[in-house]
Design a protein that fits this description.
The chain is of the alpha+beta class. Strand 34 (about 460-465), helix 4 (about 480-485) and strand 35 form a beta-alpha-beta unit. About 50% of the residues are buried.
Length: about 675
């Protein structure tokens, strides 16, 4: 059941005149008109929500955020929404103080990002740090006097050479970039500054900053936020101080560091695997964390573990609370009474909030949590709960997520940021489908987005879009990309083939050591199922996708010539060059292949779309950011030149300064609109 708060009702009344206009399809400029709630945080008393509103400024072509306070109806808190921090501060990571009187956040102070503390009584946000690098992962101490955070400590590498002093007034080239560590660049960060991430503690009253962790390990970087023990004496974080940690990117353990700094840490976990996101029970006796046991597979499900927090030495007899759930868990927090752990998990295209009691079966406390990725319908999002109320982004098919509250078995929409926009738009229907795969009969989950005013008696082009990852998923949520396809007249199909998460660990690992493989059959079976409905023009079939979807779309056109055109976005084309030039080389060579490229080059080649390029006849557009370090531009350049050498009609779209996420809003529009334009200009001749 869903209800709307009084504020939303008022918004709909005010939006009334928009309804008088004839609804129009989604258009490109809507990307700059849409808004969405990010990282909602429920206040300690449950009366109000601090939430980021994300927008896109058309004048500067940038994503922006501002920070708002939103009332919880009937709670006795504030009566109206109010702006707390404007977009000029670029606020992020808002976190309530334990007493609910202040909110800490990361924001801009001049050109640098610093930690601010906003006193709700006077409404003034004051910077409390003067850091060189941007802080992250804010966590208040239980007494509200300190804030733990993560920050980079730069390490100056030893010089290999020294240039002679240049003459006064001379103009020389920029200094050489000397690389001595791996990885040396990452997406979206870019070129990495040598050093390690460390945990610090900020004294809120004085502004004094104390370094808590030390040494190599990238401490706390993989945690949602550092965890304090209830007495404030220790900070718990994950890290890997081993000398070869850079070769083991998904190996970490938990450590307890003295919060006063300068002490020796105590290692809490010693398993071969990945443990992070520690949280301590309210009574300080039990540790909960997220982790997995290393099985060297490309997908390894994260579970919620609990163990007695020992006074000395590591934990023993950790228990897996979500073993039977068979879904990836994250974002854990203790229930106030200490009887169990709240967590987020992905399930058949959406996320849910679950509760894992210390004794008993897992239950669902919030049935549907939506995403906050406007550009594609990937599951994700976040939540905040006090045990009786939960705030989160809602699941919406016809608009971006709303800010929602789940309480007493019903959903209340606290803020529909796009109510007026939706009233002015003609939106096509979204339909869920399940299709048996030709590979083995397994059911493949997917969705069809129809064009506005769809008429089943007519023939429509079909555009299949494939998600990335490959261990991610799509869901029944709004996506500006898919709605622009539909508005252009395309029946749009998106599915979760084998390898997708949210369908169990076995399903996700069906592509282990063979990706791409029978996931191709899953995709083609879904295409066939939609064609069988009778309203698809089979001379106008199109396929595309980004990242892992770029792999599968380029693989598909090497397997079949049924598609009139393809849009291959930020792909991996050659697994050897991907392993040796991308920022995930250690993952590729350790988890996606059994050995390294020079040890088994034939296996890397056999799974590379480039190995099939000689069979490609499909006109193909390739789209990649020039600063993409996850699937570097060299991958796309290889494919483009190979297609050109054999006379296949092709185009390469290079997005300047854009990373794997395609950069600024106009660059996303360039990717979407060039795909539509490419499809529009290509159709197969009737047989």
């Amino acid at each position: 059941m869903r209800v709307y708060s009084g504020l939303i009702g008022l918004a709909l009344v005010l939006a009334g005149p928009v309804w008088a206009d004839t609804p129009k399809p989604v258009e490109a400029l809507d990307l700059y008109r849409l808004e969405q709630p990010i990282d909602p945080q429920l206040s300690p008393d449950g009366k109000q929500v601090a939430v980021l509103r994300q927008t896109r400024d058309i004048q500067i072509d940038r994503v922006q955020t501002d920070l708002w306070l939103v009332p919880v109806p009937g709670s006795g808190g504030v009566d109206v929404r109010r702006l707390l921090v404007g977009a000029d501060r670029a606020p992020s990571t808002p976190r309530w103080s334990p007493d609910g009187n202040s909110i800490a956040f990361v924001g801009k102070d001049g050109t640098k990002s610093q930690i601010f503390v906003l006193d709700l009584k006077d409404g003034i946000a004051k910077p409390r740090t003067t850091l060189k690098f941007s802080p992250s992962a804010l966590s208040w101490s239980p007494d509200g006097k300190k804030i733990a955070f993560v920050n980079l400590v730069e390490e100056k590498p030893e010089a290999i050479y020294n240039l002679p002093e240049k003459p006064e007034g001379a103009t020389w080239a920029a200094p050489a970039r000397v690389l001595r560590t791996f990885p040396y660049r990452a997406d979206p960060e870019g070129w990495l500054t040598p050093g390690d991430y460390q945990v610090f503690a900020l004294d809120v009253a004085t502004g004094a900053v104390t370094q808590v962790t030390s040494g190599s390990g990238d401490w706390g970087r993989e945690d949602g936020q550092p965890a304090w023990t209830p007495d404030g004496q220790f900070v718990l974080v994950s890290g890997n101080p081993a000398p070869d940690a850079h070769l083991k990117p998904v190996q970490s353990d938990l450590y307890a560091w003295p919060a006063a700094g300068g002490g020796t840490p105590r290692q809490l976990t010693t398993d071969d695997g990945f443990e992070n996101s520690p949280v301590v029970s309210p009574d300080g006796k039990t540790l909960a964390y997220v982790g997995w046991r290393n099985r060297q597979t490309s997908f390894q499900r994260t579970d919620v573990f609990v163990a007695t927090l020992p006074a000395t030495g590591p934990v023993t007899q950790a228990r897996n609370l979500t073993l039977k759930l068979d879904r990836p868990a994250s974002q854990i927090s203790w229930r106030k009474d200490g009887r169990g752990v709240n967590f987020l998990y992905q399930d058949v295209g959406i996320s849910r909030v679950g509760f894992a009691p210390l004794d008993g079966a897992v239950s669902v406390t919030t049935p549907e949590v939506g995403n906050t990725r406007l550009l594609l319908p990937s599951s994700g999002g976040s939540y905040s709960t006090d045990g009786t109320k939960t705030v989160y982004p809602s699941v919406e098919a016809d608009r971006p997520a709303n800010l929602a509250l789940w309480s007493q078995g019903k959903e209340t929409i606290l803020w529909d940021m796009n109510a007026a926009w939706r009233a002015s738009k003609s939106i096509g229907k979204l339909e869920e489908i399940w299709t048996p795969s030709s590979a083995d009969g397994r059911k493949v989950h997917g969705w069809i987005l129809y064009p506005p005013n769809f008429d089943p008696s007519k023939k429509y082009p079909l555009a299949m879009d494939i998600h990335g990852g490959p261990h991610t998923d799509y869901g029944p949520m709004f996506s500006i990309t898919h709605h622009l396809y539909a508005a252009a007249g395309y029946v749009t199909l998106f599915t979760n083939p084998r390898g997708s998460i949210g369908y169990g660990e076995e399903f996700a690992n069906l592509i282990n050591l063979c990706y791409p493989c029978q996931d191709h059959d899953d995709l083609m079976s879904s295409v066939d199922a939609v064609i069988a409905r009778g309203f698809i023009d089979t001379n106008r079939l199109y396929i595309g996708g980004g990242s892992g979807g770029g792999v599968l779309s380029s693989w598909a056109i090497g397997k079949t010539d049924r598609f009139a055109a393809a849009s291959v976005k930020r792909p991996v084309i050659n697994w050897t060059s991907e392993a040796l030039t991308s920022d995930i080389g250690a993952v590729v060579t350790s988890y996606w292949f059994e050995k390294r490229p020079w040890e088994e080059p034939e296996k890397y080649w056999a799974r590379s779309p480039l190995s099939l390029v000689g069979k490609v006849r499909t006109p193909t557009i390739i789209i990649t950011g020039e600063s993409d370090y996850r699937t570097p531009m060299s991958e796309s350049e290889q494919y483009f030149q190979a297609l050109q050498l054999q006379g296949v009609e092709s185009a390469l779209v290079r997005l300047p300064d854009a990373g794997h996420g395609f950069g600024r809003p106009s660059q996303w529009l360039a990717a979407i609109l060039s795909t539509i334009g490419w499809y529009d200009s290509h159709s197969k001749k009737a047989e």
